[in-house]
Structures are given as C-alpha cells and as structure tokens.
Amino acid sequence: MAKYIVVTGGAGYIGSHTVVSLVENGYTPVILDDFRNANRVVIDGLKAILQAEPIIHEGDICDPNFLDSIFEKYEPLSVIHFAAYKAVGESVAEPLNYYQNNISGLVNVLQKMLEFNISNFVFSSSCTVYGEPKGQKEVTEETEKNLPNSPYGYTKWIGEQIIQDVYNANKHLKVINLRYFNPVGAHKSALIGEFPIGRPNNLLPFVTQTAIGKQEILTVFGNDYPTPDGTCIRDYIHVSDLANAHVKAVDFLMEKKSGLLENINIGTGKGTSVKEIIQAFVKETGVVLNWQNGPRREGDVVEIYANASKAEKLLGWKSELTIVDAVRDAWNWEQYLSK
Ligand code: WQD
Hints:
Strand order of the largest sheet: 3-2-1-4-5-7-12
Mean pLDDT: 95
Order of helices and strands: EHEHEHEHHEEHEEHEEEHEEHEEHH
Bound molecules: UDP-4-deoxy-4-formamido-beta-L-arabinopyranose
Low-confidence stretches: none
CATH topology of the domain at 4-185 and 236-267: Rossmann fold
C-alpha cells in the first residue's frame, strides 16, 4: 500500500525538493499545484531525479471539489501545505491577493482534512512570524512573536493562529508548524531549484542572476547596520536540508498516537551577513560579481537566526549542508537554466 502524502504547492521551490526527499524515504507524494507560482520545467527535473513520473494534479486548493477528488482518491496519511505566495515586497503591493490565496487556501485544506478525517498536517510557516526579535537575535520557538512587517508575514502569523484554533477544537489533530529561516540553494543535480518569477526579491537568486548576466548589478540593501560588516544577518538554510526536515516531521507525526501541535524552527543556527554570502559565492565560483552598496530596504529585519535545538531533539533533524554548498548548488542551477 503506497504511503500517500499530499503536497500542496509541490511544484514550487521548497515543495519540489520535499517531493524528492519524500520519495527517497519511501513515501509517495501527491503534488497539488495550479502552477501560478511554479514552472513546469520542474516536472522534467523531478522525472530525471526520481527516474519515475511524479503524481501531479493541477488544480486550485481553494476549490473544495478539487480537494474532495484528491482526498477521496488517495486517502493520504498526511498533508504538507506549501501552496502560498511568499514575496514580502509583492505582498505589500498586492495584500488582497496574499490574504485571498494564503488564508483561504489554508482554511479550505483544513476544512477538507477534518471532513476526510486526515489528522497529520505540516504547515510551511516562517521565521517572519517573529518580526524583528527584540534584543535576542537567536530565536527559539518560545521567542515572542512580534507583529510581522508585511502582509506576507501576516498570512503566516494569522495562519498559525488559525491552526491553533482548529487544533484547540479538534485535539485529535497532529500538527507541526515548520518555521523556515532563509531557504537557499538547489538540488545537487541542478535539475530543480528556485524559479523566481520576474525580478528576484531574494538575495541568492539575485546574486546568481547578476553573475550570469540576467541582472546588471546586485545592490546590497544597506551597509550601515549595527552588525560586524554593516549588512543584515540571516540564517540561510539549504533547501535540501529544509526538504529533509519535512520528511522528519511526517515521520514524527506518523509515530504519534495522540494529538499535538508543535512549532519548530528550521535553520542552521548560524547567522550569515549579506556580504558573507557575496564573498562565499565569489570564492566558490570564481565569478567576478558586479555589486554596489545601496540604501536600506523597507521592512528588513537587522539580524535573525534560529536556535534549532528543538528540531534536533524532537525530530532528530539538523542542517548538514553549508553556505558553500548552497552558493555552489544555486550557481549550478542558474547555469543549467541558462543552457
Ligand atoms: C535577505 C537579505 C536583504 C536582495 C526571506 C523571504 C521570506 C522568508 C524569510 C520564508 C536582506 C538583502 C536581498 C537584494 C540585498 N522565507 N538583499 N539585495 O527578506 O530575509 O526574507 O526569507 O518564509 O519569505 O522573503 O530574504 O533574501 O529577500 O533578503 O541586499 O537584491 O539580503 O536586504 O538583508 P528575507 P531576502
């Protein structure tokens, strides 16, 4: 009997890498995606890596009938919910699109899980729920959740609240909110990776696009922050490590007999600055990167990185890949895209 796991947004960046890790660990992922925020080239990449056709159903998770058909057909052991918009800047410009898609999608998935008695749920949450940590830069899951600084961040913040309320009313549910820090890199095969639509918002895809010539110059958003080299610090987690964390989360839920709700940070536990990312990229690739210092970006947190000890204690997971692995794999993927 196949161990079906429904992966909403499974054709996306983190979703597709998680699909690979699920298959490698004996699960059968069922990808639900409407490709509004994913590129179909990922399907070829998955076929090449898996040496098999992934199960993909194209549809909108906001459509109750679509979810009915999937849950009836597969009776999945768990749902991993990625499907959401995730660009901080875009969410400021288009808040209603973010609330409509991210919140309605989550509510619909939860409603259908209750209807079909599916108890295991892994939610793609984010360190953005911490906002700007007051004082303590290394955040634990008990660190106070400050108000987020973007509509995107609010959809994760409200999303966790919705999940908490649904769990309080349905204590048989087994839920893990994985709070990602900064996902970076690509699969070691360079056959799947991040697919920014339009001009990248995030740092590493902008670095690789500048290096390959798709962007003219990388601007460092602020070099006068109170950090060692003046640039913002983040916890950059290799997407393949992040994918493995989802498998560990599903394993954990499958072992548990009674209901639970856990928030778990998924990061390396180490802070890396913007300039350190640039230096690591140039050193690893040998590419001369065209970059400049520029003004700060509105809404940027100065410094945040994970205390990831709970993930290790509870899930038996910790990051294994490094920043050097991430910049190398991101560059290999960018070169593959440009072939
Ligand atoms: C990182 C640093 C920028 C671009 C992201 C996602 C969010 C969440 C957390 C998952 C900042 C600087 C960037 C550029 C730059 N992930 N930068 N020049 O803002 O931490 O948030 O990770 O939920 O969804 O958006 O990541 O990569 O945008 O920025 O100097 O061209 O790089 O100012 O200091 P961020 P980012």
